[in-house]
Amino acid sequence: MLVSNNPKADVHERMSRLGIPSVTFSRQAFAEGRPVLEKLREYAVDWIVLAGFMNLIPTEILDAYPNRIVNIHPALLPKYGGKGMYGRHVHEAVVAAGEKESGITIHYVNERYDEGPVIFQVSCPVSPEDTPDDVAAKVHALEYEHYPRVIASLLSGDADSFSRLCISVFERATEDYHVTDHVDTPVRNPFEAGTIESQLYLKNWIDAVQWHLEDLIRDPQIKPENVVALKRRIDRSNQERTDLVEQIDGYFLETYKATPVRPDATINTESPAWAVDRLSILVLKIYHMQQEVNRPDTGDTHREACQRKLSVLLEQKQDLSIALDQLLEDIGRGKKYMKVYRQMKMYNDPSLNPVLYGHRK
């Protein structure tokens, strides 16, 4: 359905021709929130997609649709976002600043203008001779190409999809870790022990700690004895990570143990839990690349390079999420079968590492 605060908008006529209901509310009704929310519930609306709607969404609607309201912004956020930055104003600001690129940002909506989590970004070049109209044309082309595709991808992986659960838990763990941003901070898992959410939270926490251990060991001023201690801690962390991936695969084995496997079923190149492992690390990469984009002590060249990398990472997250959900759907239908090989790390097994067992001779 279409919900608008402009009764004269041409889109009402387009919806009528397509047989899609459209409703107009006053600005006051939008500000109140409840009248709009009641209409959304009447039509059993699952997702809200903003297109040219520039008012803040009321808290009541935000609470009813967490990570279910999507907006598109004609710039590479966080640049040129916020109140007053819409339409031609954005393109004029981009040209006035002499930017070398612009683009689009598709993001979830929260209580602040243009500050919700980014879903997808893609850029276009801006030439010195480009006018705001030229930039607008390039950005509009990106909007037409990517907004429908990203929306379709979100709809195909609904809120109950496993990838969305993973991302939600991973992002929470990443944010929680960076409250103290210290490798020795004890993990306080908010999920019930033994649940898949608890395992996912711990998985990302382990990845975050190891990420920062890898940073510490590359410090050019590090003392040699600290290198040895960090290397052994990283080895232990790698083993914990592998063990946890196997536990998550155990969850999938239990989930699909009664699924009839079709005679023509095939095996995948990796188990679901190893795809989950890559998704966890990808969430960390996105967090840290966003930090680099926002760093105040660097120049435009650094930030622009990181912005391009961030766009690739966001696209990769979307593609990997789709692939994971498709794999689980195929397993659930018996088109793929679960087969898990336990890791055999020879280097940390005293009976298999020749350096370790050699000392016993």
What attributes does this structure have?
6 strands, single chain, 4-stranded mixed β-sheet, 12 helices, 54% helix
Give an overview in words.
This protein has 361 residues and is an alpha/beta fold. 54% of the residues lie in helices and 8% in strands. The chain contains twelve helices and six strands. A four-stranded mixed β-sheet has the order 3-4-5-6. It has a two-stranded parallel sheet with strand order 1-2. α7 packs across α8, α7 crosses α10 and α8 runs antiparallel to α9. It is globular, with a radius of gyration of 24 Å. The protein starts with a strand and ends with a helix. 25% of the residues are buried. The model has no long low-confidence stretch (mean pLDDT 90).
The ordered H/E elements are EHEHHEHEHEEHHHHHHH
Q: Sum up the overall morphology in one term.
A: globular
Structural class: alpha/beta
The tally of beta strands, per DSSP, is 6
| Rounded average pLDDT | 90
Uncertain stretches:
none
What composes the largest sheet?
4 strands, mixed
Q: Helix tally?
A: 12
Condensed summary:
By secondary structure, the chain is α/β, with parallel strands linked by helices. 54% of the residues lie in helices and 8% in strands.
